[in-house]
Amino acid sequence: MTAGITWEEPFCGEGNNCFRIGTDAQGNAYIAVAGQEEHHLTDSRDALRTLIRDIKAGKADHLL
Fold first, then answer.
1. N or C terminus: fewer CB in 10 A for the chain?
2. Per its UniProt entry, which superkingdom is the organism in (predicted)?
3. What's the CA gap between 20 and 8, in Å, rounded?
4. How crowded is residue 36: how many other Cβ atoms within 10 Å of its Cβ?
5. What is the 3-state secondary structure (H, E, C) of the chain?
């Protein structure tokens, strides 16, 4: 795993799409495909929180 990042348990949607969300002590948030955490995207916790809220609100349904 990537040093300094605390990863949550994988979240798996329908099919085999599993993602992991992580955070670090500096306030950064990370998202990665489960098993490929070394290739993560990084942003602030606020940005990740907004992304999750928007997904839950259906704002990304057109991408599915």
1. C
2. Bacteria
3. 6
4. 11
5. CCCCCEECCCEECCCCCEEEEEECCCCEEEEEECCCCCCCEEEEHHHHHHHHHHHHCCCCHHHC
Query: What are the pLDDT tens digits along the chain (64 aa)?
Result: 567 999 999 988 776 778 899 999 998 999 999 999 999 999 988 888 898 898 889 887 776 5
Q: State the pTM of this model.
A: 0.71
Q: How much is the CA Rg of the chain, to the nearest whole Å?
A: 12
Q: How long a stretch of residues is the chain?
A: 64
